[in-house]
Amino acid sequence: MDTTLPNLPATNETPQPRKIRPAPPVKATWVDKVEAFISRLSTRDNFWHSICSFIWLPLAFFSGIRTKQIGEDRYQAYLPFRKFNKNWYNAMAGGALLGNAEIAGGMYVFGICGSDYTVVCKNLNYTFLRPCFGPAVYRMTPRENIHDLAKTGGEFNTTIDMEILQQGFRGERDRRVGKCEATFHVTPKVHHKAKRARKKK
């Protein structure tokens, strides 16, 4: 039985690249407008952030974390030394320091990008250096220029370096209790809408 393949005629045609159709325009519904309004409200000040956190992010509400702008592009977050954040030997719980590092970094990135983007933490590396026996302060420094990345209108990753310090009392200097590296994936909300529209078709 002959199993050889027949000789096929040679062709000089090169495969054409696949054409990608542009995403169809997506109209903003009233749900999208309400969501955008709430997102802008949550970044207006700490009061509205607390209200929104109580509904959608209870960990941030009960921990009491809040952010403060200390420069043109410099922010820091403050985590109070309250019972909800303490462990059994009256120090700041490691889970509270770790979990609120993600919240602090995400609030920082979202505050710069605005309500037209979603921010998701992809990677979080936290190094514990010493116990924290007082309020914790998160000082955040971005590795990239987030303003320029947001202006491109596309998806991007950004890494935030955080220095975590125990706030000093009565003139004492702040003591570093940990350090953290957090990588966030930022996506325009119109990309999610366009993706859902393509799936429906």
Q: What features would you describe in this structure?
A:
The chain is α+β, with helices and mostly antiparallel strands and 201 residues long. It has a single domain (30-200), classed as Hotdog Thioesterase (Thiol Ester Dehydrase, Chain A), CATH 3.10.129. The protein contains 6 helices and 6 strands. It has helices spanning 30-42, 46-56, 58-63, 94-113, 146-151, 189-200; strands spanning 66-69, 75-79, 117-128, 136-142, 156-166, 175-188. β1 and β2 form a beta hairpin. Residues 17-24 have low confidence and may be disordered.
Characteristic terms for this protein:
201 residues; alpha+beta; Thiol Ester Dehydrase, Chain A; 6 helices; 6 strands; 34% helix; elongated
Outline of this structure?
The chain is of the alpha+beta class. It is 34% helix and 26% strand.
Total strand segments: 6
Q: Estimate nothing, just give the exact number of structural domains.
A: 1
Shape: elongated
- Pick out the low-confidence regions: 17-24
Our count of helices gives: 6
- CATH class equals Alpha Beta
What percentage of residues falls in helices of 4 or more residues? 25-40%
Rg over alpha carbons: 24 Å
The overall pLDDT, averaged over residues, is 79
Measure the end-to-end span. 49 Å
Supply the helix-strand structural class: alpha+beta
User: What are the secondary-structure elements, in order, as H or E?
Assistant: HHHEEHEEHEEH
Question: Proportion of β residues?
Answer: 25-35%
How do the strands line up in the largest sheet?
Answer: 1-2-4-5-6-3
Q: Main sheet, how many strands, which sense, barrel?
A: 6 strands, antiparallel
CATH superfamily: Hotdog Thioesterase
CATH fold topology: Thiol Ester Dehydrase, Chain A
CATH architecture: Roll
